Amino acid sequence: MRVPITYRDAGVDIDTGERLVKRIGPLARSTRRPEVIGGLGGFSGLFALPKMRDPVLCAATDGVGTKLKVAFETGRHDTVGIDLVAMCVNDLVTCGAEPLFFLDYFASGKLDVGVAERVITGIAAGCREAGCALLGGETAELPGMYASGEYDLAGFAVGAVERDAIVDGRRISAGDRLVGLASSGIHSNGYSLARRVLPVDRFAEDLLRPTRIYVRAVRALLCACDVRGLAHITGGGLLENPPRMLPDDSPLEIDLSWDWPVPPVFCEIQHAAGVDDAEMRRVFNLGLGMIVCVPADHVPRALETARDQGEQAFEVGRIRA
Length: 321
Fold this sequence. Notes:
There is one protein chain. This protein has helices spanning 14-29, 67-74, 80-92, 113-130, 191-197, 200-208, 215-224, 237-240, 264-273, 277-283, 299-308; strands at residues 36-37, 46-47, 55-62, 98-108, 133-141, 151-162, 177-182, 229-232, 253-255, 288-294, 313-320. It has 321 residues and is α+β, with helices and mostly antiparallel strands. The protein has two domains: 14-165, CATH 3.30.1330.10; 177-320, Phosphoribosyl-aminoimidazole Synthetase, Chain A, domain 2 (Alpha-Beta Complex), CATH 3.90.650.10. It is globular, with a radius of gyration of 21 Å.
């Protein structure tokens, strides 16, 4: 007689998934906004649009990349969830949007409830920092897809902005200045190079420091200054991201030749890898996580506003013809 094989025998434990859902319920509730309708456990999350005159929805999705390998190697899983939220909401705010809600996708070969709970605790912390609701997500147990002890993350954020308040770079003109908001370090890009040249045991703090969330600072700047462009410095570093704030076929260019403090970890990476300055600028943020374009006479106000929000801010360049 053939012995029956259960879903658990095949590698998927539904009961373990249910235990995780019960644990993360309070985490999701800690991020709740008034617009959230219902709770976790449904087939979809419900969210009422905030009262706006002419709202435009904005959406962003991202992951954490090979920074996860550092979490696996060190057994520290409490910060990568913050990274996941940061990578999405920092993209959203570049068009002037307010992040409204966030969804996550957590996939592993075999679900470890403790590890998953620590990751989602970080996600909830990032959502609270960004002011958005953790509306739902998916926890997938996929036997044979991932190495033992490893998982993957993806995040999805939705925001809204008034149509006449969209920041799209069309008003940027020659002579405008660039204000940089300091990064907390490497953030979540360039880890394939960083992990190759830096010993994880020695640089764990630098490698796991979470990506800074700029939502509050950017929204304060939008209220205080004439913000004409915003660039989140992610993959592509300081060479490829700042020009993305300019409209297509713009006759303008970005000049980021002014000085700002570069965190020592980038010097360690450059020395260990033996790469030139151009390669470093193409891969890493080099200490600037967000760049804000304002008219020259708004620079003092922009610097003061950013610093009032707890950010280190510097005038780092200009727009030129």
